[in-house]
Every structure is written in structure tokens, then in C-alpha cells.
Amino acid sequence: MSVPFIVQVDPSQPPLDPASANGLTLNQIAYFGRVLVKVDTREQAEEFIRRHVRSLDVYADATAIRQTADLVDILNAGAAKIFITLGQLQALTQEQSVPADRLIVKYAGQDELEAFQRWVSEDASRKEAGLSTNDPQVEFTALAEKLGVSLETQSLYRTYTSPVTEEGLRETITQGGVSIIPADALTLDQRNPAGKIVASALVSFRAVRTSDNGLYATTVVDARGVCLGLVWSSDESISEALRTGTGVYQSRKRGLWYKGQSSGDVQELISVGFDCDSDCLVFVVNQVGRGFCHLGRASCFGPYNGLSRLQKTLQARKADAPAGSYTARLFNEPKLTQAKIMEEADELCRATTPEEVAFEAADLFYFALTRCVAAGVSLEDVERNLDLKNLKVKRRKGDAKGPWAEKLGVNQPAATPAPAPAKEEQPPADGRIEMTRVVTASTPATVVADHLKRPSQKSNDAIVGLVRPIVQDVRDGGDAAVLKYTHKFEKATSLTSPVLRAPFPESLMQLSPETQAALDVSIDNIAKFHSAQQGGNEALSMETMPGVVCSRFSRPIERVGLYIPGGTAVLPSTAMMLGVPAMVAGCQKIVLASPPRADGSVSPEIVYVAHKVGAESIVLAGGAQAVAAMAYGTESVSKVDKILGPGNQFVTAAKMLVANDTSAGVSIDMPAGPSEVLVIADRQANPAFVASDLLSQAEHGVDSQVILIAIDLDEAQLQAIEDEVDQQAHALPRMDIVKGSLAHSVTFVVRDLAEAMALSNQYAPEHLILQIENAEGAVEQVQNAGSVFIGAWTPESVGDYSAGVNHSLPTYGYAKQYSGVNLGSFLKHITSSNLTAEGLKGLAKTVEQLAGVEGLEAHKRAVSIRVAHMQ
Predict the structure, then answer these.
(1) Which residue among 490, 766, 796, 807 is the active-site one?
(2) Catalytic residue at 43?
(3) Over the stretch 420-458, which tens digit does the pLDDT of each residue have?
(4) Burial level of 335, CB count in 10 A (0-12/13-18/19+)?
(5) What is the fold of 216-287?
């Protein structure tokens, strides 16, 4: 059961910054399971639901919606419940497919309450409808008795016309009602500096303390509802769990217990709720590491079984399946997996006995789940989709599709002619890979802005909560801690040292002549381009007034740490993009860090690049542990002064943590996020070129985003690009990743170049590709971008590898504030002042006056003493 309140947000307002004191963000609201959004149009509701339904149960205040069909569509889109008026209720009654438990009726006054009662009396199932009032005098216990409903069903709601108070909320909770609270009235900060209502206090108020220890019994379950263990909670632990977004409980022996702080088996908090009668808290978490149990098992009640166990096995195999093994083939050869799914589905259909059906279904589940894991899809994602399908109130007929029906002799009902829907409303054909299309001229600006948003990332608080213990462990434990995490996360259990030192053995750099030649050409071009940047860093000296000489000169940063990601692709290109500028700048110590393979080795391409740039060592670790090792130094890992390089959210969080720790004495290049590209194409663009550029970034990861801005293209031209995207995507070995990326990617159809550039500058892409007429002339209009690729013959790939420009670029909109990595990233600028006696005399009165204004007498005297000495 949910907490006894729902947080309300305004969909027209931008999401709050996590550090804001203005209320709860949507990521924080998700901890309470439900959100209420007041909508004015069906499109607004559907867009909000589409973006947030996978992390929240969305309730929609649809009282402003006039068309009954729109109300049904909002429910069909996945709204858990809708708030409606009595008039809307009467109209909806004609829709026999709308269940009463999806409706919450707002009423005002006794007449409307009696009308609602009459409606309920006509059908017993209508008792499941909810009722909402804004009258603070209504007593819910009496109202529930009058309606004949149980308060435990949470079917009575209260909204507030005046500012909500904690006292009023507690009274509603006591009466068994559900309060609607604006997001800006709540905080997760126990200190409550802004005078808001502390959300954790409302949770604690609803919970029931045990009589013997004053704590709250708490059940911990995973996203699939599997019980992981039983623990205790306190007011403080509930507050900390919500603040950090992690599993925090109350140990009866040790006090506040941050789960996994010492073991690394941390928990990401998904939501907090109750059991049916609220005498037990329920924490829903994503368990990281070995499991919840102190014995290293998934659950205190034993290991996972069935599909949960299979999923864990497949996820582990995906990370470290030996090359050439059958499981590795399934992950790397989509057509093999597709063939096995079709084979097992056919065998399941042919099975006759219960034993055969169970056996063949198990095989089909195995290969289907392998397909899901390969695409980054979890059982939780599948089950969430099943739940969403269950929310539909308008059902398809469920007829078999043409070829399959024909093959098995299934009679299909005659099709009823219907007008063809608009292109945007057609669901994609089975198996077709395509992007959402938005025509800006007919789309509200708020919806366009929503489509420009990047895919949601995990709550920063939750990520930091996971990363901080790892950073601290490496800082305290040195090499042993680095090895522990490398053994755990990379499965490289044979490693006995976390460092590979130069000179690197030739045996670790065995490359084909073609690969070595390609690396050499790329290194040479990158060196040329970054060497040419030295002109902007030459020493500067000038006399600002007689006898006052000011100078600026540059020096290389002495020690730099370069993070080279591992994961789904080997990235020697990143080693070149970071290592070559460091070499050109003259950095004395270059340290690379990259996750090793399961056998403890590093790709020979990365070792070769490290050799070419004169690296001192390679840290055999990834993630937060590698960042911490370079920031603080260990027995074997050299401490560095600056850390550069891209990485996932955990790497970025670790970089931010160490950069903010003054004792580390280390800086970073920039925040980083998933890869992205924005392509602007006009009628002159080649559809095949456009599609290839979009897919070149989509294959980086399912969280990558690609944007196409099409300038005044007609339907045939748009269709040509979409066809190319689909055909080329299906030919790629990383098709599953591409499909996941394109699911949240967008084509904007705009009127002209000015609108296209305005959208691009608003988005601030990592990569901007101009496939337009007079592309060079358009560069003047670029205000925000990491790197620009000009014209039809400049694919983004050349920048990734060999042209000479750097591919370590700001993502996630940071191109508005940051530059990409360049020679200056590895230099520091030092200024100097050199005054003669006459120069000091000429400047003395000015300095003394300003020092006096600021009240800094010693500053003033440092000048006056010298001037007096001259006389």
C-alpha cells in the first residue's frame, strides 16, 4: 500500500534542480510511488505519462478535459487513476470498459455527494471509485461509514485551497484519508531550512512503532516483489534513506545502518510504502552487488529462483562470458538468438502434455530473456510493460497477424474500412526501428521542449550514495581496496597488482599491421592539431602603465590521470584523445586507467597508445575505484593533479566527489554523460548519410540520444531518411543497443535554418553535424556545441578517431558552459607582476584607496611602507 499522500506537480514548469530548496524533484517524488499532475489537454497528459510512467504511478487531474473520449485515452495511455467531475462521471458511465477503481470523483457540497451515492448504488462494483473533497471540515471516518467503504483502500482524498500545514496533514492521515500535497510544500531535508513539511515525518507518522524497541518493522523487497529481508527502521533512518536515495535502516546493535557501506552490496531506493494495515514499512530497492544477505546471497530467505535467478545468471554471463562460448554467441549474434526464439516458440506450440508445455516454455523463456538482457531490458521492465498493458481500457481485438494466421489456417474477420490516421499517430510496424517525429509548427512549445530533454538519469543522490563508500574505501585501503573492487566488478580475480608499469612488454601490444598503421596516422593527426594550439598559450607580457609589467605564461600540469572506459566497446580512440594532448603539453607523468578483462589483461590497442604517449603506468581498474586511486594515490598508483576522461554515471559522480574534496587536491575536466549527436539536414542531404550519422552515436549505448532536425522536408524525404535508419540499423551487430537508443530519440520537422539553429543551440549537443547547403556559412550561428562536423563529407566518425580534433566533449547540455578537451586542458596559466620603484609610486594611491575601502589595512601598509622607504 502507498504512503498516505500524493505529491502534485505542474507539468508546465521545468523540473526542479536536485539542489533546489523549492520542493521535491520528480526523482524524489518517485520514492513515494505516486504523482498527481493537473492537465489541460489529452496531449499534455499523454506526454507526461509517456515520460514518467515507468518510475511513477501517474494520477491525472483531468477535470479540465471536455471530451469523454480524451478521458478514456488518458487512462489508456497508462494513467493509474484520473480525477474527474460529477458531470464527467455521468458521461463516462456510457463507456462500459472504464473500471470504477480508475476514477476519483471531485465533489463539492451535499447535493453532489448524494448524486455520487446514487451512482454507486446502481452497481456494486462502483464502490471502488474514489472520492475527493477540498472541504477541511469533512471527517473521513464518518464519510467512509456513510459510503460503506473501508479506509484501508485509500479511496478518500483531500485537496487544500489554502497553504497546507503539517498539522492538517496529520489530521487527514489519522482519519485514514489521502492528502494531495504540492511538490513545493515538501522537503527531504530534516533540517528544513525553508520552513517546509518534511516528507519523512509524514511517513513516520503513518507507521506503527513496536512496543518493545520503538522502531518500525520493515520488509525489504526488490522491484519484482521478492522479499530480500526483514529489518528495523527509525525516524532518522527513514529520513536518511529518502535523502540519500539508498537503503538505510536502524540496527539494534550498531545504530544507523547504511546498507552496503562496508561490503559494497548497496541498495538504490525505488520507493517506500506500507503493508495492508500499515504496521509494517515496505522498502522497494534495487540490490547491487552479491545480494542483501550477509552470507552473500540474494535474499535472507535463500537464493533467487526461477526467472529472477536466470536473469542474474544471464547478466553475469553478458559481462564475462568467454569469447566463442555459446552464451557469448547469443549475446553477439542477434540472428542466432532470433532463430532460437522462433524455434522454441514453435516447439512450445507443438507440445501436448503439461510436462512438454512446461519444458518448452522454460526453453523459450531462456532465449527470450537472453534477448532482453542483450538489449539492456530487465524482467522488471517487462513486468512494468505488462502492468501498463493491464491499465488499457480500450483493447485490441487480438487477432493473429496475417502471415501467422494464414500459415495456421486461422480465420480473420473482415477488416472494417477506416480513414487512415496521420503519420505521427501510426504505431511502428513490427520490427521497424524508427524515431519519434515532432512537427514544431503544430506542436505546443512546451511539448517541443519536453522532447528536447535528455533521457532521465538516475538520481544523483542515489549514485553518490553508491559511489562515496567505494571512494572512501580506496582512500583508506589503497591497493587492497582497488583489487577487491576489480575482482568483484571486472571478475579479474587473477590480478595481484592494480598497476601495469612502463616499459610495457611487446607481448601486450600485438596488433595487426593495419590496426597499428591506423593508430599511428590518428596519433600523428591529433598531435599536429593540438601542437598548433600552442600559439594561443605563448607567453604574454605587457606594460599596463609606466613601470608596471604584467605577464602570463603556461606550464604543463605535472601529473594527469586519463580514464579510458571499458564496457560495451574497446576505446583506444579515447586513449589517443587524452594521451596525445597530454604528451604534446609536456605533462611529466601520464597515468591511464581502464577496466581490465576478466583474465586481467588490457586491450593491446590501449597498451600501444599508452606506450606511444609515454605513459608511466596503466591502472587496471574501472569505475569509482579507478578515479579514487588516481585522486588519492595508493601504494602502487601514482597520485595525479587532474583527472580527465568520459565514463558512466558512477565515474562522473566519483570525479565530482574527489574534485570537491580539498584534501585530494585534484581537478577534473568536465561532467560527462551518455553520447549524443544532433544532425541538421535540408533537402540537399543524402538520406543514407543522415541515417549513418544518427546510428553512429546510437550504437554507443541505450542511454545515448540522437536528434534529427529536418528543415522543410516533405513526407517523401522524411520517409526516405526513416527507411534508411531502419534498414541500416537492422544490419548493425549492435542493433539491440541502437533500438534502445532510438526509442527516446526524436526527429524535429522545422520551417527554416533559423529555427533549426535555435533548437540546436537550446539542446547544446555533444556532436553537431551540418548536412545542409552552405554548411560553412551556418557555423557562424552555432553558439552551443561540443564539436561541429561541416558538410556531407564530414561524418562524426572522423572526429572520433583520426581527423585530429578531440572527441572528449561536453554532453548532457554542458556544451553551454564547457569546452571539449584541448591542449589547454593539460596546461595551467601563471601570471606575474614586475614593478619598478616608479611604477609602484604611480600605482600606490590607487591601491591604498581600494585597500582602505575594503578595510584591509595590512594590504594598504604593504604599499605605503615601500613608498615611505623610497623617500
Answers:
(1) 766
(2) no
(3) 444 443 434 446 888 989 998 888 888 888 888 887 555
(4) exposed
(5) Ubiquitin-like (UB roll) (3.10.20)
